[in-house]
Write a structure and sequence with these properties.
The chain is an alpha/beta fold. It contains 11 helices and 10 strands. Bound molecules: phosphoenolpyruvate. The site of phosphoenolpyruvate has 13 residues, from β10.
Length: 279
């Protein structure tokens, strides 16, 4: 097996550095300690065979090799992605993480093992897992804590169903999903929140910029109440080249978590450009 070189992690920076930077509108990149001003990540889910993953990574290296870009490949491809991205600015992570460490949890992804392979991020609480694996918000919070403890940045996915939105319960649902995380992780943790309305994931329906901003502003207010105002909030749900610029203009939309469009390099590169051009 290839020996991976250790990457500088934001969580490993001294507390003095962590307090003095990053500035309000940026997030320190875990890989090189540089400041990022947006974050656009591709969630590949269980798409692609390994040679297709290699091709997509090569395309990303050619077109999107910059701070603030990250990919979430299937876990099996993490070693090859780690090798390919070794000297690049592109970050990478896993799509889920176990709440427990080493031990008897067959099939789980242990946070320390994930970190050993150079991952910097872990998605937790994606709606597909909340639905398919019946992950509770408390379980998701424990996953977020496991990630933080291993030096990974969890990206906590939250979002309401269409029924919840139509019943006027969208904000309450999102806050209920978020609250166990905020109760469990230390207040100085580096994490991100991804607002992904379930009705917009993989459906081609995107929240309007006003809908996205309204929810992001609610999340921002709650984070600020407890001293986590530095936490970045991403939008996810059918983001594509055609709607990225509008979403990127929302003041509280720091970046995007992209599913389907992340598999097409032209679409993904256009989304990255939309968020980059905002600055
Ligand atoms: C996702 O799965 O996180 C997602 C946002 O998917 P899509 O962009 O395909 O809606």
């Amino acid at each position: 097996m290839t020996t991976l070189k250790p990457l500088q992690k934001w969580s490993n920076l001294s507390s003095a550095n962590r307090q003095s930077s990053p500035p309000d509108d940026s997030l320190r990149d875990l890989k090189y300690g540089r400041c990022m001003s947006f974050f656009v990540a591709g969630n590949w889910k269980t798409h692609l065979l390994s040679d297709e993953a290699n091709t997509l990574i090569q395309q990303l290296l050619d077109q999107c090799n910059q701070d603030g870009v990250a990919v979430f490949p299937p876990a099996l491809y993490v070693p090859q992605v780690s090798d390919q991205l070794r000297d690049s600015a592109i970050g990478f992570g896993v799509q889920d993480i176990s709440e427990s460490g080493f031990g008897a949890t067959t099939g789980d992804l242990c946070a320390q093992q994930v970190a050993e392979f150079g991952c910097q991020y872990a998605l937790v609480g994606h709606s597909e897992r909340r639905q398919r694996q019946q992950e509770s918000s408390q379980w998701v919070a424990e996953k977020a804590l496991a990630a933080v403890t291993a030096g990974l940045v969890p990206i906590v996915c939250v979002g309401e169903t269409l029924e919840e939105r139509e019943a006027g319960n969208d904000v309450a649902t999102v806050m209920e999903q978020l609250e166990p995380v905020l109760n469990l992780v230390p207040v100085d943790s580096t994490l991100m929140v991804a607002y992904e309305p379930v009705w917009a994931i993989g459906t081609g329906k995107t929240a309007s910029a006003d809908q996205a901003q309204a929810m992001h502003s609610e999340i921002r207010a709650r984070l600020s109440q407890i001293g986590m105002q530095q936490t970045k909030i991403l939008y996810g749900g059918s983001v594509k080249a055609a709607n990225a610029a509008e979403l990127a203009q929302c003041p509280d939309v720091y970046g995007a978590l992209v599913g389907g469009a992340a598999l097409q390099i032209d679409e993904f590169a256009a989304i990255v450009a939309a968020f980059q051009e905002r600055h």
